[in-house]
Known about the structure:
disordered C terminus, two-stranded antiparallel sheet, mainly alpha, 7 strands, globular, three-stranded antiparallel sheet
Amino acid sequence: xxxxxxxxxxxxxxxxxxxxxxxxxxxxxxxxxxxxxxxxxxxxxxxxxxxxxxxxxxxxxxxxxxxxxxxxxxxxxxxxxxxxxxxxxxxxxxxxxxxxxxxxxxxxxxxxxxxxxxxxxxxxxxxxxxxxxxxxxxxxxxxxxxxxxxxxxxxxxxxxxxxxxxxxxxxxxxxxxxxxxxxxxxxxxxxxxxxxxxxxxxxxxxxxxxxxxxxxxxxxxxxxxxxxxxxxxxxxxxxxxxxxxxxxxxxxxxxxxxxxxxxxxxxxxxxxxxxxxxxxxxxxxxxxxxxxxxxxxxxxxxxxxxxxxxxxxxxxxxxxxxxxxxxxxxxxxxxxxxxxxxxxxxxxxxxxxxxxxxxxxxxxxxxxxxxxxxxxxxxxxxxxxxxxxxxxxxxxxxxxxxxxxxxxxxxxxxxxxxxxxxxxxxxxxxxxxxxxxxxxxxxxxxxxxxxxxxxxxxxxxxxxxxxxxxxxxxxxxxxxxxxxxxxxxxxxxxxxxxxxxxxxxxxxxxxxxxxxxxxxx
Length: 521
């Protein structure tokens, strides 16, 4: 029996039927083509509904899969060189996941290490098992990304009815600036102006509990919408705030679905802490949950703090309580910091679930990685809870609250408007370049005429450029320089830089709308 096992392990492609090799290759290629086609169909659907940000997020997923595939390829190629790295047996028996585990005698070591009385840094079987983990990690990363996107969109779809309600007469009457009322009598004030609102120690527990019950209420949505439009648009503007938040959240998915280098380093550190002495199964699964609850509490606290600040400035309000957007409500004045924390939470949660699934598949449900039943329950419960809570509650809440920063995001423009502005910017730059080139050519011509010792003098020349009879629709403008005797000194066709209503030197450099109110009027 042992001889048969050795014989089967030494079987190579030289002794394998060609039809078997061709069949395996066909199946692998067929599955790869199916997956690529599904991704292509999904990209076409996003393009059809004009969701460019989702297409970019899908490209991020493809890049992550390609990176994981490249890591797996390097591991396959480097199996033998890694196995030839020899370490002492004492080092090989340190930091093991299992306390009672010792190196087995039936493990075949490389000849080089065996001759030296040492062990390999990682055996070839260990490298194969690590490849399985990379595959499972890629699968869970993709599933986590799509589940997060689906939960977030499902949550925000319920906000459409709230946005439609802002066009009714009842809403217009409630927010009529001609109506005066006390701040604590408004719906927003009744929700947030409590006895604990002014005390940070009491406010944090209340905000912590609020994220589990109606994390985003209708009155919160209306008040934040009203404050956003009042800060960036003209009063009474018919701005679709719900679609703006949806576009902003779709752009944020591009960040959430990617993987930064520091997240990879943290993952490597967690793998190192998987040794028995660190007891990581008792505290590592709780890290994503604790961070997620902290972010949700902070977002709820920002809403309450904005209400308290507005109440302190004026106890009597027109229409309803007006909140003022500002970056100082966020940690270190950076609203984007919360997004990076959510990115870290989601990836580490998918990493924990992938690690649990891999160990279950390779070593069984009850192994040294999962010693007790409580360990299994904790890992599964924490992973599922973090995934649902982050996708359905915290991430949409982030998308709403972070719009209350000082600046307005690029997502305020639709894809059609962004495309038009980029084309306008390109044409303006081209026209400015033509105008600069024409001026340089004119200066060079005048310098050449002076160097030829002409009899004309600039003291007797009335150089002027008349545009009173110019056709502004023409592509070029005629420019003549005439001396006192009426002779034409220089006649040149100068390209027209910009239209008559455009100011010279203006360009659209980005979408920083610091004076967006003026642009709306």
